[in-house]
Amino acid sequence: MSKNNPNQFDVAIIGAGAAGMMCAAVAGQRGRRVVLIDHASKLAEKIRISGGGRCNFTNVGAGPQHYLSQNPHFCRSALSRYTPQDFIGLVKRHRIGFHEKHKGQLFCDDSAEDIIAMLKAECDAGNVSWRMPCTVQEVGKSAEQFRIATSAGEIQASSLVIATGGLSIPKIGATDFAYRIARQFDLKLVETRPGLVPLTFDGKAWQSLTELAGIALEVEVETGVKKERGHFLEDLLFTHRGLSGPAILQISSFWKPGTPLTLNLLPQLDVADTLIEGKGALKKNLGNLLAQWLPNRLAEGWLKINGFDAGARIADMPDKSLKKLGDSLNRWVILPSGSEGYRKAEVTLGGVDTRELSQQTMMASKVPGLHFIGEAMDVTGWLGGYNFQWAWASGVAAGSAV
Ligand SMILES: Cc1cc2nc3c(=O)[nH]c(=O)nc-3n(C[C@H](O)[C@H](O)[C@H](O)COP(=O)(O)OP(=O)(O)OC[C@H]3O[C@@H](n4cnc5c(N)ncnc54)[C@H](O)[C@@H]3O)c2cc1C
Hints:
Elements: E1 8-14, H1 18-29, E2 34-37, H2 45-49, E3 56-59, E4 67-68, H3 75-81, H4 84-93, E5 98-100, E6 105-108, H5 113-125, E7 129-131, E8 136-141, E9 146-150, E10 153-162, H6 177-184, E11 189-195, E12 199-200, H7 204-207, E13 216-223, E14 230-238, E15 242-244, H8 246-252, E16 261-264, H9 271-277, H10 286-293, H11 296-305, H12 319-330, E17 332-334, E18 338-339, E19 347-352, E20 370-372, E21 380-381, H13 386-399
Parallel strand pairs: 1-2, 1-10, 2-7, 10-20
Antiparallel strand pairs: 3-6, 4-21, 5-6, 8-9, 9-10, 11-19, 12-15, 12-18, 13-14, 13-16, 14-15, 16-17
Helix pairs in contact: 1-5, 1-13, 3-13, 9-12, 10-11
The chain binds flavin-adenine dinucleotide (FAD).
């Protein structure tokens, strides 16, 4: 096949999202002939809706400890070769204003569109060709190259990078494409499940809690044991369907169906000790005292739901009751019935098993020339800019190698 053939490329990348565009820009700027293929009609919708429209594009403290994977050391190499500071440098070169919001999370001052425009400009600087919107019908491989049958004709390339992301938010074009390609080439998959997702609850116990909808407060939340334990100090939001807010999104990635969560609604205070030891001096009734520590509506609702009389004088209450109240606040154990699923999940846990891939190049060791990057693989970040940092770092790793 002649190099003048307009459908012949060095590198074909399927999926023009965060990882795909980064990979294309890096490979293109190295002088490789690159084509980016995406089935969507609008570019990088997930970046556009991310971070509430302002894209939390990295986290200054991002490191391997912020990622979940069956192969936890895999991400180390790519993350150390392309760091948050490298991406910040790129953002600065494009004069995009940004600010730090919370725990190292960096957001655009104006809009996530600035990040999309930046990545597009970087692809243009690498003369990247586009096929979009374009449906991929089939992928085949001969000894020398990949043949990709698409709605825009057949494309041939010596390297193929799969950057089609995970299953989250099918409404904006998420598909299982990466997993299908992995299966086609006999690569192992780690079972997928929704992550960074609100959790749902049912049953009578939950019914009484729906009156707390709308209340937010900082809590400690934990689940799991040993290596699988997750533990966060973040904001919790009561909703009509269950619990949400950063605390729940974070812990949802660690949560396994059938296991409980333990929440501490007053992490700065040992409630039982404070009530029992201070009992003599505490002139207040329960309702007034709790309202000093918790949002008013939560204090009232919590006492009612747990069968306490808000008007009871603390001095008159038996230690056993005070201990029960303290435990309900400091060690609230609840069993989620499920999650809101991929419809609402920010990420997909699991994916292409990284034990099949090179940590330097993201290439499948069994299939020379085939690479997987971004969320498609079994590397999932916490909430807070870590998922984009993985998309950039894995994109650069593959883009520098293809
Ligand atoms: C609501 C929301 C908010 C988020 N906010 C943040 C945040 O602020 N910070 C953060 O770090 N992470 C955030 N994330 C996670 C982050 O968006 C993803 O982890 C990241 O986009 C993954 O990059 P990717 O390139 O692997 O996949 P994507 O960015 O999802 O790109 C995949 C691309 O592949 C295309 N594609 C899919 N299937 C096919 C197919 N069959 N054929 C052709 N093309 C296909 C899609 O159209 C898409 O363009 C958020 C996610 C959601 C859903």
